[in-house]
């Protein structure tokens, strides 16, 4: 055992064994039994593509070592924590003394592997697991002998056998300290076992000052209260909850969260007190700053959400968890972001989470057992490349970041149904932002796999399966559809939100005037970087250009528009290209001009050939005059009336990607194109045109 313990917290002889943390530890009073549980971090030798699809760089195993010095046995049990809903790995090892020769050690080992599903890579995962397991068996004896020799080199050649102590010191009992006061924060009234919320609130009453990290034998919660409201807790976990709550009562100025909420943060950090306290304090500050506790009373969802947001609560699952249904494939994500802005969309998602917490409390009372999380059912029928609209994905990632930080351990299970072949692309983008403990709760079904054994009926009663999934229960979730562009809001309108949860916004706005284009500067350090953009022409017709210059333009100047005798309240017009610059000498055009009509949405990218300064330009489009007559055309007259002030409006978003990131995205895109060849988007048509410039030999892709 002394040699074996030297493998922790990490072992250089096992390259894939990166690190380990102690989760729990127990030692008997006489020292005969020592049980320690560790969480081990492994870097599995797997293809990079498989890791990207799975969304993990490392996998985690839980290992429990039970040493019994009295019986002279060491038992080692291990199981995978990562992807435990998809792959089940169990391993058991046992070291014992040979019954006929006490100088011999017997070793037995067994393991099992059960792969339920893994994104279509089941056979690959099986081969990887068998390879890793076989390699570890071959090196097991070598590693033990290495550490045995290390002990011998240090002069440790013999460790005395355990024997009971003759006069063990008497343990300090509670009775030995009758004068010690018991704080109100620790003493749980008997009424806690009742099903009244008032008795639960009594737990949050401030008590007398005490050391927040001092756990004493009388630090116990009422057993009935634990069973009724918190669920199974190990003694160490119970102690962590009491200490953290007591620390909050003594230091936190404001509302003390309920035990269930504190417990979520402890579970999210594997009951590491310091880590849980840090994220809990940050969350409490965030809730107070943005008045989240009053969100359900103050937030009223706009009509566009009620009509086009395809999500809603729907009964509960078999475990009593509230069930939330989201028809993501039918949602116009771009339309919602453009019509609502990120702030309103985030507030709506937060209100869903707050409602989920409330429903968990209700279901706890209804079912008579602790329910602290909910189940989410996501239907992906209709998902295609339009959902990979980059600003929308970025907004989604930011929402995930806020939810992960402030609502840990609230998702009990996520059922993803009818996942199309384009889904791995979205999963690759989103999964790295989702906590490992959350990812392992995902169950993904392709096509109609959810209808058979092991599918939806294992988690939801047949009577409440929604009608759009083949069930008999009417689901009142909106069917979604295209958000009318008439509901889109400008950047200026979105910036007038009263209370901001984010300090910035994805979209910027620009005003374009006749003779005064709007320009954006992007500095490129590394050649072969990729400039991506997405913009909407809100008013008028414009010409979109991309230029390159080796020297930096003068600091941006906003056109006062005095020369044009035009007033532009709130207009944002920035010009970078100096009037004295000559095209072809001071700067060059790197892609063919693109004429964009009012109401069009344009997405595109440009692979840069050189470092330097790139300028994106939106320029007023002059209507060509009729060649055969000097009289104006009817279309020209209508266009002049439509844009009487010679003003155009664009809302745009840009981002610079490294070449490696862009290649990974294109690779995933191409891998999913097979499923898109026959699909038709109800929101937009995707068309790509590749152009090249003789001046730069770079490629650009622009799509409407």
From TrEMBL:
Name by which UniProt lists this protein: SEC14-like protein 1 isoform X1
PANTHER family, alphabetized: SEC14 RELATED PROTEIN, SEC14-LIKE PROTEIN 1
InterPro entries linked: CRAL-TRIO_dom, CRAL-TRIO_dom_sf, CRAL/TRIO_N_dom, CRAL/TRIO_N_dom_sf, GOLD_dom, GOLD_dom_sf, PRELI/MSF1_dom, SEC14/CRAL-TRIO_domain
Boundaries of every GOLD domain copy: 503-656
Organism expressing this protein natively: Huso huso
Top-level taxon of the source organism: Eukaryota
Any single Pfam family the record assigns to this protein: CRAL_TRIO_N
Source lineage: Eukaryota, Metazoa, Chordata, Craniata, Vertebrata
Ranges of residues in domain PRELI/MSF1: 1-156
Domain CRAL-TRIO: 301-477
Entries under PROSITE patterns matching the protein: CRAL_TRIO (PS50191), GOLD (PS50866), PRELI_MSF1 (PS50904)
